[in-house]
Write a structure and sequence with these properties.
The complex is a heterodimer of chains A (116) and B (114). Chain A has 116 residues and is mainly beta. Helix content of chain A is 0%, strand content 51%. The model of chain B has no long low-confidence stretch (mean pLDDT 93).
């Protein structure tokens, strides 16, 4: 079974600065997808960014980008120009072969605090 | 926003009582899921469905059952609630063959078992 590890329970960043959240995963598959979800205090789960394992190019969505290292099984999230609205719990997730039901396996989350 | 409605949003019950949570979608997506969220554990899959009357277990399925009699509805039942089932429960949906297969989540249901 796949596992997803987020080793940073909490992180802090100053407003306008850059922060990187770490995620590693364990899998024997060669084709898969990776996601970062954001959960603000409202509890809503919001997709931030996604990455296909077969693509070498790192995904980017505005201020959010990933550093995908397939060989190292690492998938970190970089948030540039941090804003107060970025404060949330961030979850890394792995999606295995779609024939397995499109199931996502989540990490335990990183609580991001943004300070003035 | 994906059309996903969970009910009830909040519930307090006593140990030993049955509880049913309902997830209703208006997107006609094939896959539906129930996750629970607990501090230190992230989200863990309880059960999922890949079609009407087609369901399978997730990693934390003990003490839970599900049913899906219509595409739009996915029910999660706790036959006899225990305090360890106090949690926030999320329903999610996914398209059948989406390129990414991303999940869209409901707003969550907070269950407290006393």
């Amino acid at each position: 079974a796949q596992t997803v590890t987020q080793s940073q329970p909490e992180m802090s960043v100053q407003e306008a600065e850059t922060v990187t959240l770490s995620c590693t995963y364990d899998t024997s598959e060669s084709d898969y997808y990776l996601f970062w979800y954001k959960q603000p205090p409202s509890r809503q789960m919001i997709l931030v960014i996604r990455q296909e394992a077969y693509k070498q190019q790192n995904a980017t969505e505005n201020r959010f980008s990933v550093n995908f290292q397939k060989a190292a099984k690492s998938f970190s999230l970089k948030i540039s120009d941090s804003q107060l609205g970025d404060a949330a719990m961030y979850f890394c997730a792995y999606r295995s072969d779609p024939r397995g039901g499109n199931k996502l396996t989540f990490g335990t989350g990183t609580q991001l605090k943004v300070e003035l | 926003d994906a059309g996903i409605t969970q009910s009830p949003r909040h519930k307090v019950t006593e140990t030993g009582t049955p509880v049913t949570l309902r997830c209703h979608q208006t997107e006609n997506h094939r896959y539906m899921y129930w996750y629970r969220q607990d501090p230190g554990h992230g989200l863990r899959l309880i059960h999922y469905s890949y079609g009407v009357k087609d369901t399978d277990k997730g990693e934390v399925s003990d003490g839970y059952s599900v049913s899906r009699s219509k595409t739009e509805d996915f029910l999660l039942t706790l036959e006899s609630a225990t305090s360890s089932q106090t949690s926030v429960y999320f329903c999610a949906i996914s398209e059948a063959a989406g390129v990414f297969g991303e999940l869209f989540f409901g707003e969550g249901s907070r269950l407290t078992v006393l």
